[in-house]
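Dear Dr. H.,

I hope your travels went smoothly. While you were away I took the liberty of generating a structure for the chain from your last submission, since the lab meeting agenda had it listed for discussion. I wanted you to have the full record in hand beforehand rather than looking at slides cold. The sequence, exactly as received, is reproduced here:
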Amino acid sequence: MKDVVMRLYDEVLNQGRLDVADEIIASALSTDPNDPPGPERVKQISTHIRSALPDMHFDIQDMIAEDNKVATRWTLSGTHTGTFFGVPPTNQPLEIRACVIFELKDNQITNLWPILDTSTLRPT
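The corresponding predicted structure, in token form, is as follows:
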């Protein structure tokens, strides 16, 4: 299970290989009823973050797995060149920290629950 979640961070988010989302994200995954489900939503999120932080990088500090869930704690860093969480671009490096719990079935992410610490959204 951890390997599937690492593919999300390494391949989809860090490397921008959005096609990998089609393999590891279940079609039923939904983050909000008003958003498209499944891999398309993950691709939208990745594209949105990259538009604000073109050199974005997720650094995983912790990953814990139990039963069908994986919990991660990470830091996202990059150069703030676009609007991010409503904050206009500063053209400065920044970082944000978060924890996300993933639920998996059949080697696909079926649900996720992010907890973002936007208080860490600050220039580095």
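Two observations you may find useful: The chain has a mean pLDDT of 92. The longest strand covers residues 108-123.

With kind regards,
E. W.
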